[in-house]
Write a structure and sequence with these properties.
It is built from 14 helices and 7 strands. It is an alpha+beta fold. The protein has 2 domains: 249 residues, no CATH class; 116 residues, no CATH class. The strands form 2 sheets. Strands 1-6-5-4-2 form a 5-stranded antiparallel sheet, sandwiched between helices. It has a two-stranded antiparallel sheet with strand order 3-7. It starts with 10 loop residues before the first strand and ends with a helix.
């Protein structure tokens, strides 16, 4: 499904579970994942298989069909782990290459992309584009969407033609929930504005610092301008620091109502003296935010994307810069949770939107066709088809 203002879905939220998948179950998940993947790729091609993985509802159905708990965070990690094992040795034949995984394995994603790029003889540009997509998608969901879910799982799956999908998951231990994010290359028009393949969740949060919505565009432009003009930026930060010594928050004659309190007051811009530019040696005392800002400014980023990819630029730095840009330019970030809807296909009464019949039917069609074309035994096919029937 394309990304639009009417219906979007790319984030699914689940309970955060612990423990491991039993070996007997994982072995069967691998076998069923293999035959279904082969059948779909042979029938529809690698691009369509990636497109299906990028659909959180189809992915959820796929994972549930493999017999994992439908509403648990482990569905994501175990389904993708099973898929990676299932396609091992068949990657070139099927034209699908699974990289990354959970925890430490996720940090090996660039190395695995390089491994397959060498094996396939991809150009340096193609390899760099794939690595950039992997790194930027992770940075966006951890830095530009600050929803309290810290990423701990990242899979990057691609084909020879340069199509790719990202499925990654974050955890929020205080809420005991996990949230899954889906990306698809054909849906990404702009990495830093509505880049996901859609959004779905069982729960929304009241306030999320969010720079991927269109209404935050002016704020991002102001933020980038401030980094480019670092002397002006540091001067404004020094003025903001004075708030803590009794100054009122009306630096730019902005409305008294808007600025009776502002989140910028909670940010810590202090930094050890050795990291400061010469003209601000005596202004601050201790932290990492200004060091990251100074590093970003020294790189002279030409775009917001390149700023986000700068080493050391994390959630706190982006948030502090964004709030500063709001004070200077009056351009606000968004505080809206990117999750739009909490239903998979809509409701029969049109709430929150009408049932998406074509999408509903397509999911069933692809799963049923894959099972029928697979090399499962007659009884195994009947069991799998029965599960699909139960799912929908």
């Amino acid at each position: 499904m394309t990304n639009n203002s009417a219906v979007v879905r790319s984030i699914a939220t689940f309970t955060l579970d612990t423990g491991k998948c039993p070996p007997w179950l994982f072995k069967r998940m691998v076998r069923l994942a293999r035959v279904i993947a082969i059948a779909i790729i042979e029938e529809f091609g690698s691009e369509e298989f990636l497109r299906r993985l990028a659909d959180p509802v189809w992915f959820q159905s796929f994972g549930t069909l493999l017999a994992f708990d439908w509403n648990a965070s482990g569905l994501t990690t175990t389904t993708l782990g099973a898929l990676k094992v299932a396609l091992r040795g068949l990657e070139k034949d099927l034209n699908v290459f699974v990289c990354g995984g959970k925890g430490r394995v996720s940090r090996k994603t660039p190395d695995e992309i390089l491994f397959w790029s060498d094996k396939l003889g991809l150009s340096q540009e193609s390899y760099e584009n794939l690595v950039k997509a992997s790194k930027l998608s992770a940075k966006v969901d951890n830095t530009l969407v600050q929803d309290g879910f810290v990423l701990y799982h990242h899979n990057f799956i691609f084909d020879r033609q340069g199509n790719w999908v990202v499925v990654q998951q974050g955890m929020n231990t205080s809420l005991s929930k996990a949230r899954r994010y889906h990306w698809f290359s054909k849906s990404v028009k702009d990495f830093v504005e509505l880049p996901h393949s859609g959004i779905q969740s069982e729960a929304t949060l009241k306030q999320v610092f969010n720079l991927i919505l269109p209404e935050a565009k002016k704020n991002k432009e102001g933020l980038l301008e401030l980094v480019k003009e670092k002397r002006e930026l540091f001067y404004e930060i020094k003025r903001i620091q004075n708030l803590k010594t009794g100054y009122q928050l009306n630096l730019l004659e902005l409305s008294e109502q808007d600025f009776s309190f502002h989140p910028i007051e909670l940010e810590n811009f202090s930094l050890k003296e050795k990291f400061l530019p010469a003209f601000l040696k005596e202004a601050f005392s201790d932290s990492r935010v200004l060091k990251a800002i100074e590093m970003a400014a020294s790189k002279e980023p030409k775009s917001f994307e390149s700023l986000v990819l700068t080493r050391g630029i994390g959630p706190k730095t982006i948030r502090a810069l964004s709030l500063t840009a709001e004070l200077i330019f009056g351009a606000k970030p968004s505080w809206e949770d990117p999750v739009r809807y909490s239903y998979a296909f809509g409701g029969k009464d049109g709430v929150p939107y009408p049932v998406e019949r074509k999408e509903y039917d397509k999911i069933i069609e692809v799963l049923e066709l894959a099972i029928k074309k697979s090399k499962l035994s007659f009884s195994e096919k009947n069991i799998a088809l029965y599960k699909v029937e139960r799912l929908f």
